[in-house]
Write a structure and sequence with these properties.
single chain, 355 residues, mainly beta, Tachylectin-2, Chain A, seven-stranded mixed beta sheet, 1 helix, globular
C-alpha cells in the first residue's frame, strides 16, 4: 500500500475540545441511541478497569462520564452497536495467565469475547455466561510470540445482508497487526475466522500495522476507519469502504495531512467509531477524533475533538461550518464544576446477570 498515491481527506476541526477524557482512556464508540440520546462509550481509568459513558443531546456538549461496568475484561474493548432498535455490545480478552497471573483473581471474562444486551444503554447484562469467541475457535489467528493477552484491540460488529460480521485484531507478527473476522446468523454461533483482505494488498514486509478495526454501519452505509502505522514510525487514520462480502476493504484516502502518530512531536490520534448527524442541520455529519491518546504529550489533555464536512457520506469537499451553540460556552464555564459533581452522581454495574 502506497498512501502517497491516495487523496487526503480534509475535514474541518470545529471544536478542539468536545470532551476531556482520562489519561488512559481508549477505544471510543459513539452511538445515536433509540431513546434519542447520543452516547460516547470508552475504556477509562487504567487498562481494562472500567467502561465509561457520556451522554449528549446534540453531539457537541456531553455530560460528565459515569461508570457503567467494572472489574471485567469486557471493559478493555467494550464495543456497543444497535441492531433493529436494540442495544448490544461485545467485549473481552483472552489472557495468558501463565504470563499474567495477577489478573486471574481480579477480573472476569478473560477467556474470550462476550455478548451483552441493554434496555437503556446504561445497565448491561450478559446474553449468555459463556464467551462467543475463544482462542480455540476455528481459524483463530494467534500471535506467533508470547503475548499476555489476545483480542486486545478495538472490535466491531456489523449487521449486513442478514448476517453479523465481527472484526478484531490479528497479531500476525511481532510489531505487525492485521484484522481478522467471523460471520454469524445469530450473534452466538460464529463461522471459522478469516483474515481481512485489503486493497491495495496488505504487505507484511513493509511492516504496515493496522492497529484495529473501527468499522460501523451509518444509516445503511458500511464505513471503516483504521489507525494505520508505517515502518517509519508514523501513520494515519485510513478511510475504507468494503466490498459486498465485507471481507475485502478498499482504501479510500487518509484523514487530514497531520500523521496520526508523530514521534518527534509525541502526538497520537485515534478515530472514534461512529458518525453522528447534526441535530440542527442534517446535512452536516460529525466525525470525532480521540486526541493525545494515552497522554503521549504530557503537557496536553486527552480530548475528543469534533470534525465535520457537509457532503453526506462522500469523503470529500469541505464547507466551513460556523457553530452557534451557546452550550459550548456553558461547557467551558461549568465543565470543572460538572466533573466534580459527577463523582457523586453515577451508577455502577459490577454484577453481571444472564439475560
Amino acid at each position: 500500500m502506497n498512501v502517497s498515491e491516495k487523496t487526503e481527506i480534509k475535514l474541518k476541526k470545529v471544536c478542539s475540545v468536545v470532551l476531556k477524557l482520562d489519561p488512559e482512556a481508549a477505544y471510543c464508540s459513539i452511538l445515536d441511541c433509540p431513546d434519542g440520546k447520543i452516547r460516547l462509550y470508552y475504556r477509562g481509568k487504567g487498562r481494562s478497569k472500567e467502561t465509561h459513558v457520556c451522554e449528549s443531546n446534540d453531539g457537541i456538549t456531553f455530560s460528565p462520564p459515569r461508570v457503567i461496568l467494572r472489574k471485567s475484561f469486557i471493559c478493555h474493548n467494550f464495543s456497543p452497536f444497535i441492531h433493529e432498535g436494540k442495544l448490544y455490545a461485545i467485549g473481552g480478552k483472552a489472557i495468558n495467565y501463565k504470563l499474567k497471573k495477577k489478573h486471574k483473581v481480579k477480573k472476569k471474562h478473560g477467556d474470550g469475547l462476550y455478548l451483552l444486551y441493554s434496555e437503556n444503554g446504561l445497565s448491561w447484562r450478559l446474553v449468555q455466561e459463556s464467551p462467543i469467541i475463544t482462542l480455540s475457535h476455528p481459524g483463530f489467528i494467534r500471535a506467533p510470540f508470547n503475548l499476555k493477552g489476545e483480542i486486545d484491540s478495538p472490535i466491531s460488529c456489523i449487521y449486513y445482508q442478514k448476517k453479523f460480521y465481527l472484526y478484531f485484531r490479528a497479531n500476525i507478527e511481532k510489531g505487525v497487526r492485521a484484522i481478522q473476522y467471523a460471520v454469524s446468523d445469530n450473534l452466538l454461533d460464529w463461522s471459522e475466522i478469516r483474515l481481512v483482505q485489503f486493497n491495495p494488498a496488505f504487505d507484511v514486509n513493509q511492516k504496515y500495522n493496522f492497529y484495529g478495526p473501527y468499522f460501523f454501519d451509518f444509516e445503511g452505509k458500511i464505513k471503516g476507519m483504521i489507525p494505520c502505522f508505517l515502518k517509519d514510525g508514523k501513520g494515519f487514520i485510513g478511510l475504507f469502504d468494503p466490498d459486498d462480502g465485507l471481507g475485502v476493504w478498499y482504501f479510500k484516502g487518509w484523514f487530514n495531512k497531520a500523521p496520526v502518530f508523530a514521534p518527534e512531536q509525541r502526538k497520537f490520534f485515534f478515530p472514534v467509531k461512529g458518525i453522528i448527524r447534526n441535530r440542527h442541520n442534517p446535512d452536516i455529519l460529525h466525525y470525532y477524533v480521540h486526541s493525545n491518546y494515552l497522554k503521549r504529550k504530557a503537557d496536553q489533555p486527552v480530548t475528543i475533538d469534533l470534525y465535520i464536512h457537509e457532503n453526506h457520506l462522500q469523503f470529500g469537499t469541505l464547507k466551513k461550518l460556523v457553530l452557534k451553540y451557546p452550550a459550548l460556552v456553558r461547557l467551558s464555564l461549568l465543565g470543572g464544576l460538572l466533573r466534580v459533581m459527577s463523582k457523586f452522581k453515577y451508577r455502577v454495574s459490577t454484577v453481571f446477570k444472564t439475560r
